[in-house]
Amino acid sequence: MTTSTPLPDFSHGAAYTRGRFVPIDGASIPITDWGFLRSDAAYDVVTVWDGAFFRLDAHLERFAASCRRFRLDPGIDDARIAQVLAECVRLSGLRRAYVEMIVTRGQPPWGSRDPRQAVNQFHAFAVPYVWIANEEQRARGLHLHLSGVPRIPSASVDARAKNYHWADLTQGLLEALDAGYDTVALGDGTGNVVEGPGFNVFCVNATGTIVTPASGVLEGVTRRTVIEIAAQLGMAVETRPLPATELRAAREVFLSTSAGGVLPITRVDGQPVGDGRIGRVTQQLIDTYWAWHQDPRYCTPVDYDTV
Ligand code: PLP
Question: CA spacing 20 to 30 A to 128: which of 9, 44, 205, 224?
Fold first, then answer.
């Protein structure tokens, strides 16, 4: 009688950790890794849309910069990272995926608390595409709350390095959800809006200029895409501090994120933005954002056949 080992089930997604590809449901990291114990990690998220990575180079570049800022080393070069990500996608078979690359601090030898002695660990995974807003929210526009919880200052944790210091964002999100809003944006503690859980914030102000915060934020790849699209469409963009008062008086407000692209906001703290409907500029940016997903300049196709 022959017994056969069941094949691993990658249908929910695939992960790479400790040098091996495993189904996402069974993927784990050691409990003593400082990535878990101290949020001591850098990460990035790239998406796959219709079988191709969108702006993979920009994500790899930002990931390398985040690692440098936190003195973390993935231990492999960009070409190998790209291979591992593609293999996670290939194994999962997903045509639309949310693909994360992570470096955790690892752990120093027992008895040592010196982070320089830790061996950093590279991990990655691919799961089905994640939307920050569901279909109904995208169709009507999200209702945003401006929280009183200030974002962790960049002087403490550099917001340009993509990180898991999310206690402030999560606290703000809980506050917003409890009050019946869809999501939240945090401020810098001096009256300016910065960013929210997983997205950058933009407005089209009362004079028609697109404004997004210049600092204290992750420099989102979608934010960069929006700025480039706006330039192509001849729309004026300013990156500078964005006062909450300017956002509240804006004609249009929208978010940018790899988890959904350009997401319209139609209410801020219960008050309609403009006429309360998705604005013309926002709609043009949404349409062009998705059109760019078919543009070979920004796409890296995944080879689903290679073993
Ligand atoms: N700001 C924060 C705090 C984020 O976590 C993210 C993405 O996860 C963003 C902004 C948007 O960045 P991107 O457009 O690269 O997804």
Answer: 224
